[in-house]
Write a structure and sequence with these properties.
With 273 residues, this protein is an alpha/beta fold. Helices cover 48% and strands 14% of the residues. It is globular. The two termini are 33 Å apart.
């Protein structure tokens, strides 16, 4: 089974480039700005988009994303709004993979099978569910797979060998590696330790590995680039977007933030000018 995610990572590998995966919360700074921000991020060098689904209890997220989710919920942004945003984005972009990132409760309320069908119709490629461990994901995985969607799994420094074996069997799309045990946006990145763990993971898995949590800027992204297939950057972008008060300024801020990170990832890579 092959789709947009697999094609994009194959293209990156062939070009010798590290993927760039920005995250922001759909509906913050506004719902109308969401699809334009997605396009702006692609124009600035994003390879995969992670779009946050607002949730009232985002337990794995730090204060920046928690507040972002609260603001989006106050604007009545829910899963239907997120899917509508993806449909709007797909009117202009059929190639960039979209992964929805969030929590299981909204999907269960929506209905797992109906969500999978509607998400596929909206142009979504994968789902990353923070609070659904692989041992409990059989029904969700089956529904997503039937619709052609990937369930993106997570691993962290505390993932033991038994669970890593299970993840290796079930992983699809790519693996999201949490660079340290904590919440998003925390400042605890130790590049040498993370790099060694990433090298080991990439040798053990059949899917690409993206690293997130603690990646804040061009420097931290570049430090991890040799060890990962992609880097994910979220809280720092979310914080930048939160300060904008209209769509044009939000898009400009997205480009200004992501552009230097793309340049840093490409710096010195063979075949990349």
């Amino acid at each position: 089974m092959s789709g947009r995610i697999e094609r994009r990572f194959a293209e990156l590998a062939q070009a010798g480039r590290t993927g760039l995966v920005p995250f922001f919360t759909c509906g913050d700074p506004s719902l109308d700005a969401a699809a334009p921000i997605m396009h702006a991020l692609v124009e600035a060098g994003a390879d995969v988009l992670e779009l946050g689904v607002p949730f009232s209890d985002p337990q794995a997220d730090g204060p920046v994303i928690q507040r972002s989710s609260e603001r989006a919920l106050a604007r009545k942004v829910g899963l239907r709004s997120v899917l509508a945003t993806c449909r709007t984005f797909r009117e202009r972009d059929q190639g960039t993979p979209i992964v929805l990132m969030g929590y299981l409760n909204p999907v269960e309320i929506y209905g797992v099978d109906r969500f999978a069908r509607d998400a596929a119709e909206a142009g979504v490629d994968g789902l990353l569910v923070v609070d659904c461990p692989p041992e409990e994901a059989a029904d969700l995985r089956a529904a997503l797979s039937a619709a052609g969607l990937r369930l993106i799994l997570l691993a962290s420094p505390t993932t033991d060998e038994a669970r890593l074996g299970l993840i290796a069997e079930q992983a699809s799309g790519y693996l999201y590696y949490v660079s340290f045990a904590g919440v998003t946006g925390a400042d605890a990145l130790r590049a040498d330790d993370v790099g060694a763990r990433l090298d080991a993971l990439r040798g053990a898995l059949q899917v690409p590995v993206a690293v997130g949590f603690g990646v804040k800027d061009a420097q931290s992204a570049r430090q991890l680039a040799p060890h990962a297939d992609a880097v994910v950057i979220g809280s720092a972008l979310v914080e930048r977007l939160a300060a904008q008060d209209d769509t044009a300024s939000a898009c400009a801020a997205a480009k200004a933030f992501l552009g230097p990170i793309r340049e840093a990832l490409d710096a010195g890579m063979p075949g990349v000018s």
